[in-house]
DNA sequence: ATTTAGACTATCCAAAAGGTAAGTATAGAA
DNA sequence: TTCTATACTTACCTTTTGGATAGTCTAAAT
């Protein structure tokens, strides 16, 4: 039985475990944007097309709970909160880059026109 | 609008597109096992713990429709069908390897004991 | 006559993921 | 006094994903 339990969930493979950290529509685009510098909630929101408040909040919370990002609260009004990569989060960047490049290759292969942007 | 339509679906990023090819619980474990040689349905089934007939069938169909694997039918009874990687499928292998290694790293990080097996 | 093999298909269901829309708190600006 | 900014929360749905279970087809073996 090469499977294992962690945080109330059963995983069958390391791949599944990796995807629990990076998978879904939003986690990688968020992490990617934090690689340069810390960002505020609304900066991320403006920079990531289509994401809703709810999704952004929930994904940030998941990334934080898995230790990939830091959340720093500035006690001012209106509120200010900054998100940044942890060391663990930085380790994800090359993986994301690999997947992104693969995605671009697939897009090329499929003959789709797509602007080479940031994620 | 850096997003695009393809095959009746809307994608926002290359990452999403890549995950539509490799994402989910089963696609990468399946592809990984085809890298050495073609495999039959029941060989894959025995080699991939926990996968059900339905999941194996549906994932093989998806991989085939995206051009990552070939399906060869031998007209005998009982039926014999072999699955193998296409050139496009082979391009996915290094990506899967990267993700798998990352998964192992995360497992180490989390202090989980896990046997270094095949996917 | 029944069982077996191999590769499925068909239903039905439960859980997870993700989207819509509205509401909250606070202080300063208009 | 109403409005604005910021970072959320809550409730409610719909869609997608995945799991359980049973059934199908054919010919040969028992």
Write a concise keyword list for the protein shown above.
17% strand, 119 residues, two-stranded antiparallel ribbon, globular, homodimer, DNA-binding, Arc Repressor Mutant, subunit A, alpha+beta
Question: Separation of termini of chain A?
Answer: 37 Å
Largest sheet of chain A: 3 strands, antiparallel
Strand content of chain A: 15-25%
**How many structural domains are formed by the residues of chain A?**
1
CATH architecture of chain A: Orthogonal Bundle
Count the beta strands of chain A.
5
- Which structural class do the helices and strands of chain A define? alpha+beta
Gross morphology of chain A is: globular
SSE topology string of chain A: EEHHEHHEEH
Q: Uncertain runs of chain A with pLDDT below 50, 5 residues or more?
A: none
Number of helices of chain A: 5
Mean pLDDT of chain A: 94
CATH fold-level topology of chain A: Arc Repressor Mutant, subunit A
Q: How are the strands of the biggest sheet of chain A laid out side by side? A: 3-5-4
Please, what is the oligomeric state?
Answer: homodimer
Q: In CATH's first tier, which class of chain A applies?
A: Mainly Alpha
Largest interface: A-B, 42 and 43 residues
Rg of chain A, rounded, reads 16 Å
InterPro entries (chains A, B): HTH_HxlR, WH-like_DNA-bd_sf, WH_DNA-bd_sf
GO molecular function, one term (chains A, B): DNA binding
Protein name (chains A, B): HxlR family transcriptional regulator
Keywords (chains A, B): DNA-binding, Transcription, Transcription regulation
């Amino acid at each position: 039985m090469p499977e294992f339990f962690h945080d109330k969930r059963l995983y069958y493979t390391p791949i599944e475990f990796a995807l629990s950290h990076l998978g879904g529509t939003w986690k990688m685009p968020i992490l990617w944007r934090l690689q340069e510098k810390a960002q505020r909630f609304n900066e991320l929101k403006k920079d990531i097309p289509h994401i809703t408040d709810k999704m952004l909040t929930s994904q940030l919370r998941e990334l934080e709970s898995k230790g990939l990002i830091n959340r720093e609260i500035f006690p001012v009004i209106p509120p200010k909160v900054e998100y940044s990569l942890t060391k663990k989060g930085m380790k994800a960047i090359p993986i994301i880059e690999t997947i992104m490049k693969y995605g671009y290759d697939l897009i090329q292969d499929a003959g789709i026109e797509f602007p080479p942007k940031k994620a």
